[in-house]
Every structure is written in structure tokens, then in C-alpha cells.
TrEMBL record:
Keyword Oxidoreductase assigned: yes
Stated name of the protein: SDR family NAD(P)-dependent oxidoreductase
Family: Belongs to the short-chain dehydrogenases/reductases (SDR) family.
PANTHER family: RH59310P
Pfam families, sorted: adh_short
Top-level taxon of origin: Bacteria
Keywords tagged on the record: Oxidoreductase
Amino acid sequence: MSRLLDKYGSWAVITGANSGIGQEFAKLLAKEGFNLVLVARRQPLLDELANTLKAEANIEVRPVALDLLEPYAVQTLAKGVADLDVGLVIPCAGVDEMGRFVEKDYASIDKMLDLNVKSPTELTHVFAKKMEGRKHSGIILVSSLFAYQGIPNFAAYAASKSYILILGESLNVELKSKGIDLTVLSPGLTDTPFSQNMAIDFSQLPMIAQKPADVARCGLNSLGKRSSNVSGLLNKFYAWENRLLPRWAPVKLFGFLIDRAIAVYGRRAAKSGAAAKAN
């Protein structure tokens, strides 16, 4: 991956950098010698990560505590790094909304759409305009395996990630003439706090959890080579099979499997709670 530093310059911006795939992007780029702007909400965790990376990789790190749901957050970030020659941007912050669509509080869905759709779109627009004056630049958008079909119990989340996939594949062509490489990374199930906190028993699903470092490495290896990439062989198969089946078939299948996984989780949680009370 040393080619990335030579091609895109010395500064990279990563949102959602405190944990999961975003944190692994930061660690991998630090090893390659990138200076980093790390963006997330929690300042103590940002400072801890920044100090670790500076000590281990001898790089510059600028931690930016920022809630991307706040008004004008992207403009605030852009102004805060205006003095830097940013050549790589990875909008990695995101959130899920699991559950029956009509049973969800719409305010939560609205926040998810802002973070998963509006924020990365605005970040891409703002930084792509700034990058136009550079010889080579890169952007990695983070979608999901769920972007490739409808997913009951994740309806709005899957739709938000489908938007990112289509946006990124389109911009891959649009921005190429401006020297900007853009790729879309679509992870499947990944072992992060994002998935660990879901009320669902993933062992009931035909999915294998990937390590976040492997997912981040897949995204970096794809940059400048592919418009989009699904991480993991099994996940690639799931995305590919949708081209052969009627669109309703995988949607109905995953709806059944996810309903079962949620039910199993609920029964186990109830048993655990009952056992705790008995003790």
C-alpha cells in the first residue's frame, strides 16, 4: 500500500475514526506514513488513538471532536483542515436502524439518513471540489453488502447504503478526469461494536464475520483499481447471486433468516434475564 502515500500525498481525513473499520483505516494509513485527521464525537477516545498512532508511526495526527449530525458540521470540518493538503478522504461514520420500519421512532430513522446519506454526500462534494487542484486524490465511500438488495428489518439502512453504492459508482466515472480516484467499499458482517450491539443472533445467519482490519485493507487495495468492491469471498457471492435470481427471492429469504435470528436472540436474552433474577 505504499503506493497510496506516493500517489495521494501526506494527509488523509477519516470520519468515524474512533472504532471499527474507521479505526483500522487509521492504523493502516499510519503504518504507510500518512498524517491523519481523525474525526469522531468522543474527544477522549480520539486523543488516545491519536497519541498511540503518533508514538507508533511518527506521524502528525489532528483529532477533531465533531458530531456530523450538527448543523454545518461538514463546513466546520473543511474550514478546520483548510491549511492541509488533503489527498485522501474516507467518510466512515455510519449507524444502523434495525427493526420493523413502522415500529421505529422516525426521528431515529431521520438521524440515520442524515449520517449515512447526507453527511458522506456533503463530505464528498466539499473535498472533491478542493481536490480538483491536485494531481491525484482519493475517496473511499463505505456502503454495505446490504446495499445489493432489500433487507427486511433493515429497510431504511439498506436503502441508505444502496444510495452510497450508486453515488460512488457514478462519481468514480465523473471524478476520474479530475484526477480523483473513488471507490466504494461494501463490507458484509464485520466484528465491530456496530454489529456487536445489535439485538440479533448472527450465528443464525449464513454469514462469516470479518475482521475490521481485513475490510479496511480491502478498501485501500481497491482504491484506484475498482469502482466498487465487496469484501470477502462469501459476501461477493451473495452480491453476485442477486443478478441471477428474481429480486423478490433474496429479499424474502433474508427476511425469514433475520426474523429467526432476532427471535433466537430475544429468547436467549429472556432466559439469561430470568436466570439472573433467580440467582
